[in-house]
Specification:
By secondary structure, the protein is an all-alpha fold. It has one domain: MetI-like fold. The chain is 76% helix and 0% strand. It is built from 16 helices and no strands. Helix 12 runs antiparallel to helix 15. The radius of gyration is 24 Å and the shape is globular.
Length: 337
């Protein structure tokens, strides 16, 4: 197990470096000038040239890269042109919000997707299986931004059951002590359960929006894995031995079917970290997605680079956790390393 973790950690370093090079080059070749955007529409060419010099954008690309690399090695990710604060401070503030939304989404997607996949597999080719399969196709086909707007119209504007936007209402103070940066959990730790429910209510619509395609994906993977497992010899032996059907399905077949689904869950978590830009923008969720969206609008290089590296680093840690989970489920995974 230790060897597995160490090997995965060593592989992260070249991946992060390659990603840094790729994103750095891409942000420099796009037809946008952050100096011109920062200077404003009325700025003179001389003023723009001065800003370019101050930002180091007048240097050759390789000089800019090595300067940024030395800066990152020193723990300095620069200053955001959008917020005028150190990027590290912005990321420390935005990451917990995205993690809170991602964890809520994954909890919902796993809690629905795994049982639905098992139920579809047990009822293979019956009407219940057909209904679940059609529902998962619809879940994958619906655009997230459209679903987000429809949920806002239905549950926030018409029924007025849930908040429209934001992480908490404007008049509600944040948790007195930010233990984790996740408001719902921090309110619970502080004993403010009413405000914890208030914060959780703001999580419902964005997490449902993100969870719908994830639930469909998990259900489809789970269905295929369980159907394959149910055809194995050990299942036939257990049925012949007189084990109750529900015990065979939920205790034995389920565990032996989790490997592929766990891998997919890890991929989905990484997608929630990097691909929730539109959903966070629609719901005004102050996370990494919203931060990246505003940085992209003005070609703010420093936050784009730092946020990309952070997301990839967290994604790598999630993948390592997935490998550990697979090794626990199937010890042969650890033996193959």
């Amino acid at each position: 197990m230790v060897r597995l973790v160490l090997r995965r950690l060593l592989l992260v370093v070249p991946v992060l470096f390659g990603l840094l090079v790729l994103v750095f080059v891409l942000t420099r070749i796009v037809p946008a000038d952050p100096a011109a955007m920062l200077a404003g529409e009325q700025a003179t060419p001389d003023r723009i040239a001065i800003l370019r010099s101050e930002l180091g954008l007048d240097q050759p690309l390789w000089v800019q890269f090595w300067r940024y690399l030395a800066q990152v090695a020193a723990g300095d990710f620069g200053t955001s042109l959008y917020t005028h604060r150190a990027v590290v401070l912005d990321l420390a503030e935005k990451l917990p919000a995205t993690l809170e939304l991602a964890l809520a989404t994954m909890t919902l997607a796993i809690g629905l997707g795994v049982p639905l996949g098992v139920i579809a597999a047990v009822n293979h080719n019956r009407w219940l299986d057909q209904v679940i399969r059609l529902s998962t196709i619809a879940g994958l086909a619906i655009a997230s931004f459209w679903l987000a707007i429809m949920l806002q119209l239905a549950f926030s504007m018409w029924l007025e059951w849930l908040p429209l936007r934001g992480r908490i209402a404007s008049g509600v103070p944040p948790p007195p002590i930010t233990w984790t940066g996740m408001y719902t959990l921090d309110y619970v730790v502080a004993g403010e359960f009413g405000r914890a429910l208030h914060a959780a209510s703001h999580l419902v619509l964005p997490s449902v929006t993100l969870a719908l395609p994830a639930t469909a994906t998990i259900a489809r993977f789970m269905r295929s894995s369980v159907i394959e497992t149910m055809q194995k010899d050990f299942v036939a032996w257990e049925r012949a031995s007189g084990y109750p059907w529900r015990v065979i399905v939920w205790r034995y077949a389920l565990r032996n079917s989790l490997s592929a689904t766990v891998t997919q869950i890890g991929l989905l978590f990484g997608l929630f970290l990097s691909g929730s830009v539109v959903v966070e923008a629609v719901f005004g969720w102050p996370g990494l997605g919203d931060y990246l969206f505003n940085a992209l609008l003005i070609s703010d290089y420093q936050p784009i680079l730092a946020a990309t590296l952070l997301i990839r680093a967290v994604y790598a840690l999630v993948n390592i956790a997935v490998d550990i989970a697979q090794a626990v489920i199937d010890p042969r995974v650890a033996e193959q390393v």
